[in-house]
Design a protein that fits this description.
About 10% of the residues lie in helices and about 40% in strands. It has one domain: Jelly Rolls (Sandwich). The protein is built from 2 helices and 13 strands, in the order ααβββββββββββββ. The structure holds calcium ion.
């Protein structure tokens, strides 16, 4: 009997210590209901992922996503690295080196991609985030709600730059399943050497 209790405690301990965002799903619906109608900002990531989880848009090969990257002693951010190597495109059913990416999603991982969240009533009108790049010979595309908002960034600065995407139609936040997508695009015919991007302070805001 005591062994069973001890095993349960050990399992609970390791589960609570997990750094994998998909293991730390927080319900955004519960979070928002608690703050009622006064909510003017939904933080998606600041020093950790606050809502939902992540999924790769193609296979995870040749990429690293670190949600716990030490930017400075007192700041963490997301680091996304692509070597430029082959990634499997599930739609096209082929290995390719022209793009890869991941999304921050309402569900905990790709198996819950149909899970949605209606943020339209809150009237958020901006998706804000910060970016910097270590090096980059490919383009970065930031994709906002319902794929209707795409910011293309060709020259990333090595220092933090603030960006905002205006959400002109709050209906685009109606039953969303992806908060934001981050995609590398290689437009050359040859394999690129990929890139590295750092992302921080991602939030939907009403201003
Ligand atoms: Ca941070």
């Amino acid at each position: 009997m005591n062994k069973i209790i001890l095993c349960c405690i050990i399992v609970l301990f390791f589960n609570s210590c997990s750094d994998k965002p998909q293991d730390r799903l927080l319900s955004p619906i519960e979070k928002i209901n608690r703050t009622a109608t006064e909510l003017d900002k939904l933080i998606i990531y600041d020093n950790e992922l606050k809502v939902g989880g992540m999924m790769f848009y193609a296979s995870p090969d040749n990429q690293i996503v670190d949600f716990n990257y030490n930017d400075t002693d007192d700041n963490k951010c997301i680091r996304y690295y692509w070597s430029g190597g082959e990634v499997y495109d599930y739609n096209e059913r082929k290995w390719q080196t022209s793009w890869c990416g991941f999304g921050l999603i309402v569900g905990k991982d790709w198996t819950e991609i149909d899970k949605t969240h209606n943020l339209a009533p809150y009237g958020f009108n901006k998706l804000k985030f910060k970016l910097r790049g270590g090096y980059l010979n490919v383009k970065i595309k930031i994709i906002g709600p319902k794929d209707n908002y795409v910011e293309e960034i060709t020259n990333l600065s090595p220092s933090w730059q603030e960006y905002e995407i205006l959400i002109t139609d709050s209906n685009d936040l109606n039953n969303i399943n992806i908060y934001i997508g981050i995609v590398f695009v290689n437009e050359s015919q040859q394999r690129s050497s990929g890139g590295e991007v750092f992302i921080d302070d991602i939030a939907l805001v009403r201003e």
